[in-house]
Write a structure and sequence with these properties.
Elements lengths: L4 E4 L17 H10 L2 E7 L5 E7 L1 E3 L2 E4 L6 H8 L2 E6 L5 E11 L4 H14 L7 H5 L2 E12 L7 E4 L5
Antiparallel strand pairs: 1-9, 2-3, 2-6, 4-5, 5-8, 6-7, 7-8, 8-9
């Protein structure tokens, strides 16, 4: 994955955001994605209504990976409308990931091994193995990520080129 373009997030002046040259480092975003156990995913119904669910997630190689039964509503919606948003919990340290989901019907051995290792580190109670990922997973690749640790001084927009 290539490094994202970094810029100030556009915030209306009335919100009191100070002029600053502080930015959230991409490494902070990656560390948080690796650490957080719950991701909130927003999919969209056919009529445009949002559909929000908490899910387990892994951040590996610049991509968020999640699993889910094809029978669940949110996976069915993602299949029809792959543009999704992922948000992490937190009252002050904010991270909003906008991207496109792809339902992978299988993954290569090397990626399956990396996903299993990440899962063992984050969710050891699940006992997940590489075989669990070889049958498929949902990959959510970023287009735009908004993050801040202090809304008044460091709202940051990370932009990714399609295919990067």
């Amino acid at each position: 994955m290539t490094e994202p373009r970094v810029a100030r997030a556009v915030i209306p002046a009335e919100y009191g955001v100070k002029k600053s040259n502080r930015f959230v480092a991409w490494s902070q975003v990656e560390e948080r994605l690796t650490r957080e156990r719950v991701y909130w995913i927003v999919a969209v119904h056919d009529d445009g209504r949002p559909h929000v669910r908490p899910i387990d997630g892994l951040y590996v190689d610049g991509t968020i990976y999640v699993g889910g039964s094809p029978k669940t509503r949110w996976v069915q919606l993602v299949k029809r409308h792959p543009k999704v948003t992922v948000h992490l919990d937190g009252p002050t340290e904010i991270l909003v990931w906008e991207g496109e989901a792809e339902i992978l019907m299988g993954v290569q051995d090397a990626l399956a091994e990396r996903l299993a290792a990440a899962s063992k580190a984050k969710y050891p109670e699940y006992g997940t193995t590489a075989d669990d990922y070889r049958n498929g997973v949902i990959a959510i690749r970023p287009r735009t990520v908004i993050a801040w640790t202090d809304f008044a001084t460091d709202p940051t927009r990370f932009t990714f080129e399609p295919g990067s």
